[in-house]
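We treat protein structure as text, and this decision shapes the records that our systems exchange. Such a record has a labelled line for the sequence and another for the backbone structure tokens. The record that follows is passed on verbatim for readers who wish to inspect the format:
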Amino acid sequence: MAGGAVLTVATSAGPAVERTVTGYLDHLTVERGLAPNTIASYRRDLRRYAEFLAAGGVRGLGEVGESDVTAFLVALRTGDDDHPPLSATSAARAVVAVRGLHRFALLDGLVSDDVAAEVRPPAPARRLPKAIPVQDVEALLSAAASVEGPRGLRDRALLELLYGTGARISEAVGLAVDDLDLSSAAVRLAGKGGKERVVPVGSYAVTAVQDYLVRARPALAEKGRSGVRGGALFLNARGGPLSRQSAWSILRDAAERAGISAELSPHTLRHSFATHLLDGGADVRVVQELLGHASVTTTQVYTLVTVERLREVYATSHPRALR
């Protein structure tokens, strides 16, 4: 295959791999109109595939079997003297290119079977939600309250509500005063797709929000048109509704004052809410309802976090855990 020469193969071997790769790339460029960078990636991945097949003595595409495609995936993940191991994401991209090649050959009548159809790309490593320890949450909330005046009361109420309900930041800044029922310690949240849910509010959050409503929000409302009754729950210094960007700044400033070095976002408190509930023994379906997830499979990613935590505790606590 050196120098890009086209292989000459017997009819029984099917079309030469390199010739089919060229036809497939032309198809992607002309008929599919894929971007040049995408074509370049496909060309690189398929060139490596052709080299892999040639090294195994495969003369034409008709000789390729499912085991060859699977072996190529293994080679991508393990690497060799000339290629470092690929990540799951990069290997998946290469497998997608190979599957496309074989599908193209089948539809074009070049081969009789699509041997790559059942070879699945590797799933990328699941990115676990980031949560912070309870003590860091407490330090964060205390730091928010350390700011004097209405701003400190507002910041504490916002962060307490985020952590106490697991609300998304968009749900929290979108709250109206009337969405709160502090007498029954509940809040009505409008989730994705306009789906509403009622979530209980913990006593710490209830106290913080009450303090804000009585001692801070009236002063902020006087500077705008919201008025003390009705309107947005959380207001900015000009009396208008608090934005997501401002909520981010509130969290960042509180984290800096608390000396928390971990990278935080408003979603961190939502992750921490779910993780700490599961650590405390809450059922995953209850957490699903509280978070407003349409499917429990979305919530189950948090159980992976708690399992990792269990492993850490076991490894450091059990006398026979470590050699």
Remarks:
- DSSP finds 14 helices and three strands in the chain.
- Residues 134-265 form a domain with the hpI Integrase; Chain A fold (CATH 1.10.443.10).
- The chain has two domains: 2-107, 134-265.
- Strands lie at 180-181, 186-190, 196-200.
